[in-house]
Amino acid sequence: MKHSDTDVIIAGGGLAGATLALALARVAPALRVTVVEAFPLSADALPDSYQPSYDARSTALAWGSRLIFEELGLWSRLSEHATPIRHIHVSDRGRFGATRLNANEYEQQALGYVVDNRWMGLCLMRALLETNTQWQAPAEVADMAPSGQGVSVTVKAGDETRIMTAQCLIIADGGRSGLREKLGFQANHHSYDQNALIANVTTSDSHQFSAFERFTDAGPMALLPHGSPSRAGHQSALVWTLSDKELEGVLAMPDSDKCQRLQERFGWRLGRFTRIGDCNHYPLKLTTVDEPVRPGVALVGNAAHALHPVAGQGFNLALRGLMTLVEQFRLAAEQGRPPGDFQILRRYHELHRPDWQQTVQFSDSLIRIFGHALAPVAAARDAGLMGLDLLPGAKRLFARSAMGTGGRRAVINGPAASDKR
């Protein structure tokens, strides 16, 4: 095999890219991995202690994702600031349909967790600094072309341009991936004609580690427990679906009016809304790529599929895909084959495809079913929600989807990862 600068280049050092780099370091340590990230990385920037911010953005991790982070030796540190979800309440506003999931019914400590993105990133960076992973930051992958060694990757860092050779390029630069478009991957976009407003809120009643998924005539909204991992508090992470016009109106309101409008839409299950933090928002759409692999290159994470946040499945689906890819790279290394071998990448896609198809269908169908205001459809979905409580088998399947244990998840068979503090 001809010499290359590195074996795997990961374009993007966000949550997906950093997790992939750590998994490769744990499972296939012989592979040389280089992460190219637009933001600077410095060990000096990692604080000795983490102080959560009220306005921190967060991610919902399913129980299956906890198992993945345990395998990577990261969970003991992550769990220091991971708020457990012990109950999930799903309801249809103004109608009788509802279902409830409780962790103790499935003999689990939690159905999932809510973790600040910044804390997750800091944990990943600390772990990666203990590996042989190489970083090019701040820098970006500007282009890629096939070469004798696998791929030839153009990396730009300020005014400097460098050509790096690698056996495989992994594109993990997010849902707005410019590199995906530049390399000609065909992305399918379906707009929901809605926006997600993201904020943290405080309520007069404690969340009691409960997550609420509330479907309304204006779209779904979710409240996830946020804050202390051991003491049930009053702060929740809000995902509020709004039309363009509604979003414009809500953003123009003072905070007291935002809380009142939210109260009208959500109800009183958590008492009165007393505070809403900084509001961020983005348009909602379903993005998929039918063929996310080519010889020497693969899309992962949101670059490969971006979902509606209604069921909190996006990052959890990405994690399962990353582990499937890592397992194929491990097998390739054992066989003396380059990770960019198209058969290796195609096998990864074949294994991951049923999971993302099932997850996309699950998330998208919730939006379509609960988006109908017609009385017969509304009655049918309410009966369906009630039926979940009455039919243990159906409820168990629903719970497996919520917990991220229904899809295929690769088992790491590489060297045991030590769960370092």
From TrEMBL:
Pathway given in the UniProt record: Cofactor biosynthesis; ubiquinone biosynthesis
Domain of life per record: Bacteria
Entry-linked Pfam families: FAD_binding_3
Family annotation (InterPro entries): FAD-bd, FAD/NAD-bd_sf, UbiH/COQ6, UbiH/COQ6_monooxygenase
Domain FAD-binding intervals: 5-363
Keyword terms of this UniProt record: FAD, Flavoprotein, Monooxygenase, Oxidoreductase
SUPFAM superfamilies xrefs: FAD/NAD(P)-binding domain
GO terms assigned for molecular function: 2-octaprenyl-6-methoxyphenol hydroxylase activity; FAD binding
Similarity field: Belongs to the UbiH/COQ6 family.
UniProt-listed PANTHER family: 2-OCTAPRENYL-6-METHOXYPHENOL HYDROXYLASE (PTHR43876:SF8), UBIQUINONE BIOSYNTHESIS MONOOXYGENASE COQ6, MITOCHONDRIAL (PTHR43876)
Record-linked NCBIfam families: PRK05732.1, Ubi-OHases
Protein name: 2-octaprenyl-6-methoxyphenol hydroxylase
UniProt organism field: Marinobacter antarcticus
